[in-house]
Amino acid sequence: MKDESLSEDQQHNAISPLGYRFNLDRRAFFKVLGSGVVVGLSIRSGLSQESGKVSNPHSEEELPNSIAAWIHIAADGRVTVYTGKVEMGQNIRTSLSQQVAEELRVPLSSIQLVMGDTHLTPFDRGTFGSRTTPTMGSWLRSIASSARSLLIDMAAERWHADRTSLVASDGLITEPRTNRSISYGELTRGQHLVRVVGAAITPAKDWRIAGTSVPKLDGRAFVTGKHKYTSDMKLPGMLHGRVLRPSAFQATLVSLDPEEIEKIPGVQVVRDSNFVGVLSADEYAAANALKRLRVQWKAVTQPSENELFNYLRNNPAVGGDRDRHVVGSVDKGRASAEKKLAQTYTVAYIAHVPLEPRAALAEWNGDQLTVWTGTQRPFAVRDDLAQTFRIPKENVRVVVPDTGSAYGGKHVGDAAIEAARLAKTAAKPVKLVWTREEEFTWAYFRPAGVIDVKSGVGGDGNVVVWEFDNYNSGPAAIGTPYNIANQRIEFHAADSPLRQGSYRGLAATANHFARETHMDELAHLVGMDSLEFRLKNLTEPRLRAVLQTAANRIGWKESKNSSTRAIGIAGGTEKGGYVATCAEVAVDRANGTVKIVRVAEAFECGAIVNPQGLKNQIEGAIVQAIGGALFEGIHFKNGRILNPHLAGYRVPRFSDTPLIAIDMLDRKDLPSAGAGETPIVGLAPAVGNAIFAATGIRLRSLPLAPDGSALRTESSHAPFCHVQ
Amino acid sequence: MPFSLLVNGAEHRINVPPDESLLSVLRNRLDLTGTKYGCGEGQCGACTVLVEGKPVRSCRMSVSSAAGQKITTIEGLERDGRLHPLQEAFLRAEAFQCGYCTSGMIMSSLALLEAHPHPSDAQIVRYMDGNICRCGTYSRIIAAIQDAAARHG
User: Fold this and answer.
1) Buried b / exposed e across A686-714, counting CB within 10 Å, b at 16+?
2) Closest Cβ–Cβ partner in A227, A228, A655 for B129
3) Facing residue for A355 by CB, picked from B24, B100, B141
């Protein structure tokens, strides 16, 4: 199998561009100067990692090794931290601030984070893949720790004191023996300093600020409505833009008659190749003008939903990934199996539905372009803008205001490119906010997929063979954590009918759904309890711990399933986190409804940086997972999305929310892993397994119960598996 | 057409098309951007404001129907630097992640507590079901509403 971290980046970012080719003039190059710093630190390779271990070969590529502007200590003691990561609800503004405060030994209130600004922050590949905590967190801790060490040296030099007699605490260097002290600000004032990093990081067991439930730092701005998201921003002279969307995917513009709307005062039409937009100082006028444009598109025939899964199987991506992982011999494994099972699982395309739609505000100043936009990859969007407008990337500044969520959906800069194109013609700042329908249609989706699993169990209940073929949904968490001597696991990239890309947890949800449903089917096949069967085939202690914890919390052993109410279990590991989910469902077969009544989830991600923030992420992941598990699905036909509105695309609401019990296993002896994604993967299989436990109906497609028809019509005595 | 809007106790005279949405007027003409656009179809509740004390999806109400009525937006809750008890409760419960739904959630909660000062959890779920939090903080929002009701009911 490929290097996980490399393929992870590909998985996250293999999103086809909207493909604008603008006819623009080539302009001159303007050099932009970076900002100055007071304390600069030169970082020696490899030292960013916990205990000097190089666990992620990518980190040195993504974090500049030269003199870097990560931390600025002002004369008044205020600390500014620069990171290219962005805040979109995952609460890293708070958790990263805690980690810097911890290592620098300053009060949390003295820290301000500058995030996701390509002119101010060091390069960053993007905020995805649950990398902020393990990579940026440990990196900033290293830098803060080194800065503290440097400050001690400076004080020692100033006082001609022994550095080991000095203590850093609360923004001061103190010599306890003489009781003299000096503030960080006084020490650093006016000095430009370079230092090779090598100072020790505080172990989690000694944390005092990190590891605690610090509330969201700027929470007040959100409850008062004062926080300015991109979509709330305004610049003097700003125009509002709207983009004319094709009648279907890949449709080309045949004719456009702008005459009628060009008569409307204050409305301007912009056309460049296949791109058409309108501009007005008045958003209402821009939206209305767009509706009145007379336009003809030429569409092409495209695959529809009813043929999707066959299409994915039969249309491999040209030059696409094909990851293959083999252990032992599947032929021998098959021969030794006493019972065999082959099943197919599918997952639908689903939409991210960030509540703040894609938005961008673009302003040109000569050949300098500044764009504010909610994206997870500001530097990649900067590069895309530079390429699209044929200017040096130094001319482009992308700034990401804290954003109204993304869940993997905001990796690309489509809105930024569109706003910048409109602003180029307008010669004024232009704001573009996508409508909900545009979000549902012109963004991208979590990949749909087909997964074939073939397995066999020996007479003792050990799984002896495991074949797993995933078409299109992705290779994340495609491996099995169970001890299986003979395995063949393959990912087959396909030509996707719809634009697809990253989604919270990537394919880990699909692969966990297939694996953990199939494990449940095997347990029934051999007549074992689902939990016992898993534990029998599992030695990984971290996964065993979460499975047992979640099972205890929901009362797995004591519970009595009935035909209308039952509990299911699922577990797994991804991105360094270990999760187990138990779900209790109430099924009404007459009405075809499934209600998730209770969920118990146990999660372990090493040392916990902010328990309340982590709990919030886990709860949110469980609730978001309900949609993909039970009812979310994009419907499409011949290049058109059939349900591009919230009225036709159901997302989880208050009434869908179960009672949720969460156990967070804090392992202070282990490095912190990211936690924004992995807590989402266990719910769908746990719910499917619970539905089976109640009804005997095995549902193998996500969403499980979009309209309840499978529960109403299928006989509970139908064979739920076939033995080869 | 000229209209008079009474927003958070202040009168605004504006000249806009009568079918422009209240949301568009609040955000684009009065710079009250705390009220959010989420869907434009009345499905998500991010644009909720109070009109004569009743929760209204401002994306679906025309400015002409809102004219002359008392409108309250999220910006109208803080008084002399003091947060409204519901705002305090949302902060205590950390009842948000990205915060984009928060204004609409607080405005709907405000109307809920007017109608039911001591709501049951089931009443909260029924009343709030038109508001979406895509980050999934529903349990925390329920806790925040109960907290506010218990302290100030």
Assistant:
1) bbbbbbbbbbebbbbbbbbbbebebbeeb
2) A655
3) B100
- The answer to which of A28-37, A169-178, A582-591 has the lowest mean pLDDT is A28-37
Residues on chain A touching B136 (C-beta within 8 angstroms): 619-624, 652, 657
Strand order in the sheet with A368-373: A268-272, A275-280, A239-243, A430-433, A359-365, A368-373, A396-399
- Angle (CA) A314-A315-A321 rounded to 5° is 115
Instruction: State the nearest Cα–Cα gap between B20 and chain A, in angstroms.
Output: 7
E-strand ranges in A166-234 read 167-169, 172-175, 180-183
- Mark whether B7 and B45 lie in a shared domain: yes
Selection from A410, A484, A446 nearest residue A684 by Cα: A446
Between strands A275-280 and A294-298, the pairing is unpaired
Annotate B35-104 with DSSP letters as a single string: S--S-SSSSS-TTEEEETTEEEETTSSBHHHHTTSEEE-GGGS-BTTBPPHHHHHHHHHT--SS-TTHHH
Q: Which of A88, A93, A127, A222 to mutate against chain B (most B CBs within 10 Å)? A: A222
> Rounded to an integer, what distance in angstroms lies between the CA atom of residue B132 and that of residue A645?
14
Domain of B137, CATH number, reads 1.10.150.120
Domains in chain A and their CATH numbers?
A: 31-222 (3.30.365.10), 230-299+358-433 (3.30.365.10), 315-349+445-713 (3.30.365.10)
> Which chain B residues have a beta carbon less than 8 Å from that of A613?
94
- Chain B residues closer than 8 Å to A407 by CB: 134
CB contact under 8 A, A224 and B99: no
ipTM over 0.85: yes
Partner residue opposite A646 with nearest CB, options B28, B44, B90: B44
- Over range A573-592, report the average pLDDT: 96
Whole-angstrom distance, CA of residue A219 vs CA of residue B109:
18
Structure tokens at A85: 């990561």
B20 and B57 fall within a common domain: yes
Split into its structural domains, chain B has a count of 2
pLDDT tens figures, A305-361:
999 999 999 999 987 666 899 999 999 999 999 999 999 999 999 999 999 999 999
User: Over 70: is that where the pLDDT of A719 sits?
Assistant: no
Evaluate whether A485 touches A457 at the Cβ level (below 8 Å).
Answer: no
Of all residues in chain B, the one with the smallest CA distance to A440 is B39
pLDDT at residue number A244: 97
Indicate if B66 and B117 belong to the same structural domain: no
Q: Could you tell me if B57 and B111 lie in one domain?
A: no
**What pLDDT score does A20 carry?**
78
- pLDDT-flagged residues of chain B (< 50): none
Chain-chain contact of B136 with A228 (C-beta, under 8 angstroms): no
**Pairing assessment for the beta strands A368-373 and A172-175 based on DSSP bridges:** unpaired
B89 and B72, same domain (yes or no): no
Q: Which of A403, A436, A654 sits opposite B41 (nearest CB)?
A: A436
Same domain, B10 and B69: yes
| Chain A contact set for B33 (CB, 8 A) | 225, 228, 232
Listed residue (A271, A237, A234, A235) closest to A255, CA to CA: A271
- Give the helix/strand (H/E) hosting B137: none
Q: State which residues form the domain around B113.
A: 85-152
**Structure token pair of residue B89:** 């409760």
Has residue A720 got a pLDDT over 70? no
For residues B70 and B12, membership in a common domain is answered with yes
SS3 for B141? helix
- Domain at B6, CATH number: 3.10.20.30
CB A695 within 8 A of CB A687: no
Residues B72 and B97 in one domain: no
Domain endpoint, select from B45, B76, B107: B76
Domain end position, chosen among B17, B46, B76? B76
